[in-house]
Write a structure and sequence with these properties.
There is one protein chain. The protein is globular, with a radius of gyration of 21 Å. It has an eight-stranded mixed β-sheet with strand order 3-6-7-8-9-10-11-12. A five-stranded antiparallel β-sheet has the order 13-4-5-14-15. The protein is built from 15 helices and 15 strands. By secondary structure, it is an alpha+beta fold. Strand 7 and strand 8 form a beta hairpin.
Length: 430
């Protein structure tokens, strides 16, 4: 039976501005960038920030929502098509495991790498690339067999080792995401996530680079992941019959902080366990229980703060680990969300309010609660992740996971600005 709820204009938050006129979208995006700066930069840009706020306050007509009412969706039964599936055989030499993917996606991987390379002044480019190669080849011992996999990708694409290594680091630190873990009335644990990444044409390239990977060990598929070509770490994966894992960036933060953190990790020789996506891969491929996975994810020193969202196979096995670099700040478990049968994470601490300029938590919660059930289905989770602005212009893929059965589905997603599908007009710019 269709369940329709209506949000009236009075219930809409200031996020409606971003569903509206182009001027407001650009203004809010600029404001988001300014707010995310450090205290030093906030002072530096305070005049610009105040001027922008004044414009937004003084000209409310510019931000009048085009859509005054948003109808909450009915569960979507028809999923998006699955992404291409590849096999990574761990019995092969590390240099050979990603050859098929590297060869097939050579042009796209090179295109993304060139975005970074071309940002370096031409007069400095050659020297910078030589330094990258020298530096990262020296550090290869700290990432173990992953260095061989990165070298194999470099060989398959014709890129330098340092370029592919930097690409892997970049993939690990910049995604903006939404993850949900829920529990049905019979104790089945479900896990669903959107991964939002990039900007403009770069996001389009990433959608084309998204793929599913079967991790095979001793001839048996032990895990499955949704990832990007050229990336040897893990952001979204499931170890069949044990647990699933997704990673969300923890904000507020800044990419530049990574360099100081990387230096500290270098001093301790802890690259393999410190880079978030490399740790996640270790956990997926080496741990066999939910509790063991949670323990390692909660206690291993990291290079950056992050959220680990973990789902298991038994009743109550679901949690969101809020990580500082040196340990867990919080572990929020199923059953601790005010009587609801789910827990939800975007990119902000669950006990704090999200900023008005980046609220996906509120819309996602409204959709989940609109189903008025303590027995959420996978279709309802998918529908929530398809609802704008939970789905937005940066969304590249959606993954659905059920660890107990081994069900895994990774799908390319595009938030169309035309029409009203998925429900809720006008894709949002983050």
């Amino acid at each position: 039976q269709a369940r329709h709820n209506t949000i009236t204009p009075a219930q809409n938050t200031s996020n409606d501005c971003l569903h509206g006129r182009p001027f407001c979208i650009v203004s809010m995006q600029l404001l988001r960038i300014l707010i995310s700066r450090t205290v030093h930069n906030m002072i530096k840009y305070s005049v610009v920030c105040c001027a922008l706020l004044a414009v937004l306050v003084a000209t409310p007509a510019l931000c009048t929502p085009i859509i005054e009412q948003v109808e909450l969706p009915v569960p979507i039964a028809d999923y998006a098509p699955e992404l291409p599936l590849f096999t990574v055989d761990l019995s092969k030499a590390p240099e050979e495991r990603w050859t098929e993917i590297g060869t097939q996606y050579k042009d796209l991987i090179s295109k993304v790498v060139n975005l970074f390379v071309n940002a370096v002044p031409e007069s400095m480019r050659s020297k910078a690339l030589e330094m990258l190669d020298t530096k990262f080849e020296k550090e290869a011992k700290n990432v173990g067999e992953l260095a061989g996999e990165i070298q194999g990708l470099a060989d398959a694409t014709g890129l330098r080792f340092g370029e592919v290594f930097v690409l892997n680091v970049f993939y690990s630190i910049t995604p903006v995401c939404t993850s949900i873990v829920s529990q049905t009335s019979n104790g089945t644990i479900l896990h669903a996530r959107n991964l939002d990444f990039g900007f403009g044409s770069f996001t389009e390239d990433l959608r084309e680079m998204a793929l599913n990977v079967r991790w095979v060990q001793d001839g048996k598929e032990v895990a499955r992941a949704t990832t990007y070509a050229g990336f040897v770490g893990i952001l979204t994966a499931q170890r069949h019959g044990a647990f699933s894992l997704s990673i969300d960036e923890r904000k507020p933060g800044a990419v530049w902080k990574l360099f100081g953190n990387a230096y500290e990790a270098h001093k301790t020789g802890g690259y393999r366990d410190s880079f978030v996506a490399f740790l996640a891969r270790d956990v997926i491929l080496k741990e066999s229980t939910f509790d063991a996975a949670v323990d390692k994810l909660a206690n291993t020193t990291l290079i950056a703060q992050v959220y680990f969202i973990v789902a298991g196979t038994q009743r109550g096995e679901g949690c969101i680990i809020t990580r500082n670099r040196d340990g867990a700040a919080d572990v929020w478990r199923l059953g601790q969300n005010a009587g609801k049968d789910y827990i939800l994470e975007t990119n902000y601490d669950h006990w704090k309010k999200v900023p008005f300029y980046d609220d996906r938590r509120g819309p996602a919660t409204k959709v989940l609660d609109s189903f008025k059930s303590n027995d959420l289905t996978m279709e309802e989770l998918y529908t929530t992740l398809s609802y704008k602005p939970v789905m937005n212009l940066q969304t590249t893929y959606t993954a659905l996971m059920e660890p107990a059965t081994g069900y895994f589905r990774g799908m390319k997603r595009t938030c169309s600005t035309d029409g009203d599908e998925p429900k809720g007009k006008h894709c949002k710019i983050w």
